[in-house]
């Protein structure tokens, strides 16, 4: 996923009195994935009945991500996709993954006139955002499913879209108008791609394979924050709240109207569009856990790609293993 530079500057006050906040969380406010964090603290605030000092895990969420936590010591937690964690960990070995908030199986959509199989995209124009998790997904699915090398197709840079109408330069517009043959990106851009193609009456094919690539959207801290006994206690308390929120997000019957409303009103650019939130909900898996071995496998494979893009050496599996700290969640679940 894209670094926080493209996101709208915003601050979400989780309680009426931000002055009493003890945790500062930096998250990408233009993605759905961060919203269990917001729901967790809103629910804690509601159950406490006030914003008194006894309220559990009082926090604020500011727009950003892992780039903020490694440069701003006032930030205690940060959430982002694994691509940005790898990018920052290369030069900031104090970064730590402590929880997986969500996993998202990205979608690649092609005009059927261009291709009805992944292999059929050879020689075609593929829209995505270079250097991001979406670009990594495009390369992986074209290679692993279609047997295509990067030299077999042309990557075309396109923009995300959060709400209709999607303007020129956005992936939904480009694919609907035939500027590109296929597009791969995170949500809700891909749902808006499907909507645009449907409106234009353009036959299309959807490719999705979570075993090839799913975005892993993690919550991070730093070794210094986790070594501070008082701060660690607050972080552990927050993970307990987040666990409860994740269970509600992952409810078999689907999200409650209150959750959908919160997501639609809290993600930058969605402008309260609950229908769009419901449409993309099945693409998201609310993990609410930390499967260290699985995350490490993703990091090792993806870092080879990130290292190439960033023109550095890939990190070893042993080095990448130190990016993951499962002890915090284990502590939160004791007793």
Automatic annotation (TrEMBL):
UniProt KW keywords: Signal
All copies of domain SsuA/THI5-like, residue ranges: 65-193
Signal peptide: 1-21
InterPro entries linked to this entry: SsuA/THI5 (IPR015168)
PANTHER family: ALIPHATIC SULFONATES-BINDING PROTEIN-RELATED
Protein name (database record): SsuA/THI5-like domain-containing protein
Species name: Sporothrix curviconia
């Amino acid at each position: 996923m894209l670094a926080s530079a493209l996101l709208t500057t915003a601050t979400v006050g989780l309680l009426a009195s931000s002055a009493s906040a003890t945790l500062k969380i930096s998250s990408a406010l233009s993605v759905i994935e961060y919203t269990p964090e917001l729901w967790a603290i809103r629910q804690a605030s509601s159950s406490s009945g006030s914003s008194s000092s006894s309220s559990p895990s009082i926090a604020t969420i500011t727009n950003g991500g892992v780039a903020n936590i490694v440069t701003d010591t006032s930030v205690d937690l940060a959430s982002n996709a694994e691509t940005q964690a790898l990018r920052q960990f290369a030069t900031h070995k104090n970064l730590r993954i402590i929880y997986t908030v969500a996993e998202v199986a990205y979608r690649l959509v092609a005009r059927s006139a261009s291709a009805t199989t992944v292999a059929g995209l050879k020689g075609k124009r593929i829209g995505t955002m270079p250097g991001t998790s979406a670009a990594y997904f495009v390369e992986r699915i074209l290679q692993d499913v279609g047997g295509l090398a990067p030299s077999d197709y042309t990557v075309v840079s396109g923009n995300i879209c959060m709400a209709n109408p999607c303007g020129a330069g956005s992936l939904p517009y480009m694919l609907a108008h035939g500027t590109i043959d296929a597009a791969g990106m995170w949500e809700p851009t891909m749902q808006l791609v499907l909507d645009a193609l449907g409106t234009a009456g353009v036959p299309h094919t959807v490719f999705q394979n979570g075993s090839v690539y799913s975005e892993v959207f993690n919550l991070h801290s730093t070794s210094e924050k986790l070594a501070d006994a008082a701060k660690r206690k607050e972080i552990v308390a927050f993970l307990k709240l987040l666990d409860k929120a994740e269970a509600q997000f992952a409810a078999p019957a689907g999200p409650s109207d209150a959750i959908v409303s919160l997501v639609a009103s809290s993600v930058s650019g969605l402008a309260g569009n609950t229908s769009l939130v419901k449409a993309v909900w099945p693409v998201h898996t609310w993990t609410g856990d930390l499967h260290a071995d699985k995350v490490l496998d993703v990091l090792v494979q993806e870092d080879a790609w990130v290292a190439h893009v960033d023109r550095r050496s890939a990190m070893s599996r042993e080095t990448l293993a130190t990016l993951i700290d499962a002890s915090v969640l284990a502590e939160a679940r004791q007793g």
